[in-house]
Amino acid sequence: MNWEYYRDLIVKDGRFEEDWYIIGIDFGTTNSVISYWHKGHNCPEPIDMSHGFSKIPMPSVVQYRREGMEAEWVVGDEALRSMKLYPDTTISSVKRKMGENATYEFGGASYVPEVISAKIIKHLVDEIRHMNPNSVVIGVVVSVPYDFDDAAKKATIRACQLAGLSDKLICLIEEPKAAALAYNFRQELKKDEKIMVFDFGGGTLDITIFEVVSTKGDAISMKVISEGGESYHGGDNIDEYILRLLYNWIKDETGKSQKDIALENQAELMTMARDFKERLSGVKQIRVPFSFIVPPFAKKITRDDFEELISKFVKKTRTLVLRALREGAEGTIEPSEISRILLEGGSSSMPWVKEMLVSIFNNEVIIYSSEKPALDIAIGATYYASMKLGVLSHQDIKTFGKKVNFDVTVPHDIGFLMDFDKKPAFHSMISRGTPYSLARKTQIFTLTGETEEEMTTLDITILERMNKGDSVDKCHLIGHVHIKDLPIKDLPRRPSGKTYLKVTLAMEEEGGLVKGEVEDMGYQKAFESNGFKVGFTPRRHESVTIEVE
Asked: Are 164 and 120 a contacting pair, CB within 8 Å?
């Protein structure tokens, strides 16, 4: 039974059983969080993945162990803690590999990123069953960065399917959208407010600016008026700065370089880098011990020293904020127009983040952060899942926030690879900033050639341009589509240049995935269409062949 079945029971029959669980998952680069709709509290409740040790976010770390003939997969905190014992078979930050043609080799087998990610997602969902053996997961929403490309989104869906959520996955939700939802249920939003969501996690920085269009009745309408940030700009990048510093300290004290340090100690240094960053968010000075070095030593560093170390990163972050203001869908947005800034993601807790934003907006009081910003994305995803399942309108459910309708826009240009004067170029179909509800465009291709095969085939390459002005070689591949008439019967034998094929590209409102459709248009009045029409889903790592039968 899929999630629509349970929605009908909730909406039409008024049923909402105690053992039914609606969940939201923040699948993060560094940490992941799962939250469920708590019927007694009438709100989302994040789950403590440490079994009572008050550590709700679970490290997004997966480890493969083989002891003799026994093999085991370990996920979460234990995998992170034992990284130095299994440095060769521990995977962290796998989210950064989603959509890439990467593999991990363990135990004589290869694993792609979505398989590893599925183990993280399954481990989170299994905690529901640990809490309640009679639990039934009836619907799931999983968050993704706003800046995720099409291949990464599709890889995330595949990971959910591998985790056993095929018929329960409602949709993906962009992380800023989830953050705005979570905030809406804590604070009242007002018409015409412009809200910047600064979502700074372990792997990515998402900057999204919403405008509250209306607040009528029990619903709020919001639209995206600008988006920015960068996919590879997060807390992990700061860890790399720190790690280089740690290696330099070891070199200065002992003369040893990285290649001279055992793998298990290198893994320990990675853990130290994360700890270093977190400690300096709470105090202004720390001592860093190197107990595994002979002879052991310790180094002192201040928060000012740390911020000087990452000054280039801070400067780039500031530039990304200014770019998001400058490149608004309807023109430049002045800093004074921003009513609120919502800090989300674990990395947003570093003091320099707020200081940097104050230097741009000159107003500290508009900067909001929840008590635990690392949890808001999962909470917002749970709210959205509950809305999609009709729970928020259930007669027994009372909430303090309003339902939110989003007019979310396409984050990147979508188009075709074309040849202009024998030079490859990007031909835009769906422009960045187009509302998903309007993200559907067509292109007519004319089949020409000298052979029968040329007259009945069409190869198209679909690309995603991540930033304005990027050259074609910097565009991300969405997929290759090969339209092939086999056996040759459905596309009539027409002269060269007398067959039109209409190719339509569209983006789903739920999750922003790229879909396509091919249709024979005939040729003006000379040749009628034969009625051939078929949809397709382009994929980066496999060519999609459409065979006309």
From this structure: no
Task: Give the integer Cα–Cα distance in Å for 400 and 17.
Answer: 22
DSSP summary character for residue 496: T
Q: What is the pTM of this model?
A: 0.88
Pairing of strands 109-111, 31-38: unpaired
Lowest mean pLDDT among 50-64, 145-159, 405-419: 50-64
- Mean pLDDT for 256-263 is 90
> How far apart, in whole angstroms, are the C-alpha atoms of residue 49 and residue 57?
7
Report the relative pairing of strands 61-67 and 90-92 from DSSP bridges: antiparallel
Domain-by-domain residue ranges, the chain? 3-186+371-407, 235-311, 413-547
The CATH architecture one would assign to domain 3-186+371-407 is 2-Layer Sandwich (3.30)
Fold equal for 3-186+371-407 and 235-311: no
In 43-152, which ranges are E strands?
A: 43-46, 58-59, 61-67, 70-75, 90-92, 104-106, 109-111, 136-144
Going by C-alpha positions, the residue among 224, 212, 92, 98 that lies closest to residue 153 is 98
Residue 182's contacts (CB-CB under 8 Å, 6 or more residues apart) are 44, 370, 376, 377, 379, 380, 383
Longest Cα–Cα distance in the chain: 88
Res 395 pLDDT > 60:
no
Tell me whether the omega of the peptide bond preceding residue 487 falls within 30 degrees of 0, making it cis: yes
Q: What is the pLDDT of residue 394?
A: 45
Which of 176, 254, 218 lies closest to 411, judged by CA?
Answer: 176
Q: What is the pLDDT of residues 220-230, one digit of tens each?
A: 888 889 988 88
Please state which CATH class domain 235-311 belongs to: alpha beta
